[in-house]
Amino acid sequence: MPSGRAPAVGHSVSQPAVTRTPMICRRAAPAFLRNVRALKHTAGAAMSSCQSPACLQKDMEIPGRQLFGPGPSNMRDVIADSQSRSLLGHLHPEFIKVMSDAREGLQYIFKTKNAYTFAVSGTGHAGMECAVLNLLEKDDVFLVVEIGIWGKRAADLGARIGAKVHTVTAPHGCAVEKEAIEEALAKYKPAVLFVCHGESSTGVCQPLVGLGEACRRHGTLLLVDTVASLGGAEFRMDDWGVDCVYSATQKVLNAPPGLAPISFSERAMQKIRNRKERVPSFYFDVLELGNYWGCDDQAKRYHHTAPISCVYALRAALAVIAKEGIDEGVRRHEENAKFLYEKLKEAGLECFVEKESTLVTFLLCKWIEVKRLCIRAEASYHHTAPISCVYALRAALAVIAKEGIDEGVRRHEENAKFLYEKLKEAGLECFVEKEKWRLPCLTTVKVPNGVDWKGVMDDMMKQGTEIAGGLGPTVGKLWRIGTFGGNSDKQKIENVVKLLAETIKKKSDI
């Protein structure tokens, strides 16, 4: 049983040593390049010797299970159904509307009016990385409330980026008292305080009320992990003075893993905008991500391709919560948690967390076999994989294996040549002049002089077909036609080129 001893304050975390890989000297470069050329000559032979995996010739078998572990949770039917909707482009206006709906839903469940409220593409751990990388800089003081593995993980991440990390801890199964946290705030005066609200490794719910006010007295930002608690335990971002919160979709939301909801207060955004150095990650840069999600009033910039079907599922999950009401949902979790405690007691089982006030609505019990499983899993645990995405990956690989990788490559090359011919017949030119340098699955086409390149794309989109414009320095100079996988098909290619040519003519006649 966890003891009631006082939390330990002041444990420091040292930064791990970094192993550096020696650079290849300039003198060695020619030999290295010769090796690369030799590899190119042997690539064809190596490809043909690759055998199609026998396992992918069979249908994927996924057993139906009741998921009563610490996550992922079972998807509701309406959420599962949302993932089978037709894919849209990640910049299509219809998809942007879905993203906007999701933003409003996230503001609702976080109970915030923060403009910078969106979802990071990645699982819950991506939310942690995004928050820490944006809020902390090298030599910043980082105070971590450590009541389980997620506090340890946050401390490790802070040390990796060069922050001065200190922790305030409690025995497993206990929360840290508010007084101990305030004592540590006064002692270390950190730039950021990290608290895991629902510690899934122990089942503890760390109280948050009053911490936001305490952080403001010391000029500290409050960062909260609600991966395991959001929607199942009370959380009020604005009322409690939380500056940054992140969560995950695969717990109470009942959506598949793949997105990390996150929100930043204006105080947090001021720190991010006034950083001494740029955020050491483009992918997790909040200013870039926020622009992509429509959090600012600037023109949308391309950042990355969002996991589209996961955003559909997030929107569907938020709709379920909104229909019940976030407060009603929390009350239902609390009521059913008490029912669970009673049933466990009747079965002769004890809760690992002694105080009911610090229990999360799912809990770990003092059951030897369960504890053994947890220990075994912890040794290799890194993050929650995007499970339905892995299903899709496996299915996609099976399709490739049944055709054969070499046959698939040849099909793309053959159909690319067919596309070049059709473009030439339509009076259009490839942007890449030398055929040997052209990518077989994505062809760039020069925009003819005087043609409204964007108007052509818009008209084609209205007719249900997407092609893309240039990117960066090639904007306005070319169109991009992707013939990936199943779209590498002569009939489909002929249809696209015909529509492109007709649309160009129509726009030119106006």
UniProtKB/TrEMBL annotation:
One biological process term in Gene Ontology: glycine biosynthetic process, by transamination of glyoxylate
Cofactors, names only: pyridoxal 5'-phosphate
GO terms assigned for molecular function: alanine-glyoxylate transaminase activity; L-serine-pyruvate transaminase activity
InterPro entries: Aminotrans_V_dom, Aminotrans_V_PyrdxlP_BS, PyrdxlP-dep_Trfase, PyrdxlP-dep_Trfase_major, PyrdxlP-dep_Trfase_small
Transmembrane segments: none
Superkingdom, natural source: Eukaryota
Family: Belongs to the class-V pyridoxal-phosphate-dependent aminotransferase family.
Protein known as: alanine--glyoxylate transaminase
Organism for this UniProt entry: Ancylostoma caninum
